[in-house]
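INFO batch 0412 | record 1 of 1 | parsing
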Amino acid sequence: MGTRYFRTYSGKHVHPLSPRPEEIDIEDVAHSLSQMCRFLGHTEGFYSVAQHSVHVSEQVPREDALWGLLHDASEAYLCDLPAPIKRDPNMNIYRIAEDRLMLAVCKKFGLPPKMPHSVAVADKVLLATEFRDVTTMDDPDWIITECGQKPLWDYHVVPWPPVVAECRFMERFQELTA
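INFO prediction complete | emitting tokens
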């Protein structure tokens, strides 16, 4: 049987199927998410998960903002899957691994284990806004049906380069944990 861990950007070893809170490193999360493109890269330009996370954190009440920033932190250790694949009953092992990683993230940063409702809503609102602003999807009715929310009409996503996204993610983390 092969190694049950992988080495992160900072050199930590993470066991993705049995993660420990001490393995989670905010700089690894920021770096990894800044290198990952939303929508599997099916965008008009590079738009990172880190930037998405910063935007979600800015759309929720202050008490939920750290959860908003970290709501996709598991993707730093697992990547993400397109929704049709992720929801498939055969992908239960992935969803279990994702849940375990999010529990480790929550323990590491003192967050309640259940995602706040405001974060779930903001995530969907940002998804709708991102569909409109960074993808080639131009059917507003489909976007609303797919996301269950309308895009933010007074807010437009302008993608940041990865280095900016990583920096802004870390700045937001420092702001919320100082």
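INFO post-check: The domain at 22-115+160-177 is CATH 1.10.3210.10 (Hypothetical protein af1432).
INFO record closed
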